[in-house]
Amino acid sequence: MKVTAGGDLPHGKNNHQQVVPLYYPLHRYPSTTTTTHASATTAATISPVYHPQDEVIIINDNHHKCDVFSGEWVPNPDAPYYDNMTCWAIHEHQNCQKYGRPDSDFMKWRWKPDGCDLPIFNPYQFLEIVRDKSLAFVGDSVGRNQMQSLICMLSRVEYPIDRSITKDENFKRWYYVSYNFTLATFWSPFLVKSEEASADGPTHNGLFNLYLDEFNEKWTTQIDEFNYLILNTGHWFWRPALYYENRQIVGCRYCQVENITDYPMTFGYRKAIRTAFKAINSREKFKGITILRTFAPMHFEGGEWNEGGNCLRKKPFKSSEITLEGVNLELYMTQIEEFRRGEKEGKEKGLKYRLLDATQSMLLRPDGHPSRYGHWPNENVTLYNDCVHWCLPGPIDTWSDFLLHMLKMEGLRSAEEKSHVKG
Fold first, then answer.
1. Residue range 200-243, pLDDT digits in tens
2. CA–CA separation, 349 vs 274, rounded Å?
3. Which residue numbers are catalytic?
4. Residue 397 to residues 79, 151, 274, 390, 421: CA-CA distances in angstroms?
5. Rg, Å, the chain Cα set
6. pTM, full prediction
7. Cα distance between residue 290 and residue 293, in whole Å
8. N or C: less crowded end of the chain, CB within 10 Å?
9. Domains of the chain, with CATH numbers?
């Protein structure tokens, strides 16, 4: 995908249109397609459960190059593949059906890449690929949103049991007994060491100390055993923060503290991602694949999150109707640049890095957020409209389609590498 950035960027003038690629060219392998011969009866709202013996995996060998992350949303009347009655893993604030969202069309779309097809997620195929393996999500609540979506997508086959080694709900481990597969989540919204300096702060949503050069050992010391890491970060960097390096304040983001330099959000964002990759590359025993999931843009309209902003659209944008621009573009490009840097350093140590580029697809989905439907309207608490997280079921389920495709490509890479060695 390509996006056009015109006009003024947040931190300086832009006197010309800039066309930048909204992807990273990792997918140099054939597209994987799946042929399914299912005969189950379709339920009223939930698509049929697949049977493993009916699955045939076909891998094209024409070496067609396809960027699965560039495309459009197209109708999918078969969706969704679970609901809030069949999956217990849905977080309350993303349970849009429970809290009265009146429309359902937002659940009935699938992602169609330009020039190829992206198969709908097949839970049997996924669980076979990750048999005897482990996968961890590291990041913020949108990462947790993704993990809960994956659990729901897998619920047609099996529910996991809780194998957490701590009572902290931010550090959960789930175990799929039949497949010896472990799924974990490690809470680290900034990826680096951090602490809350004030529960209020300039914008009344906290002021944080970010130690931009220090590993967050709550997750970095836990990753050695995992085959796959999926990292994400982004939304928490909008919050006011004091930036530290070598335990000294070097600046801040909207801290409103006298004599401290106020930096753009990308200052801390870049350093935090770089430190996270440095932490991974420094682990001698870690041999897994690191996947960076790019950030999913917010869709507040009519005001910011604390100014009555909302997201009430009923259908996706077309790619011609919206572009990634301003601070969103800067954050995206920062991720890509630091990904390339981390990948290069990791490659020198034999580590693999991959990009799950969700930014374009989610930029087009202003209709997929909980908005006011993450709680009852008469609850006697202050709750803002949520245009950050994603309803379940909803557009975020497509991230499992992306992930399965990427795991299939890893299998193809491995087979080709072994073939070259034998040759």
1. 766 666 799 999 999 999 999 999 999 999 999 999 999 999 99
2. 16
3. 141, 386, 389
4. 10, 10, 28, 9, 37
5. 21
6. 0.84
7. 10
8. C
9. 2-38+50-422 (3.40.50.1110)
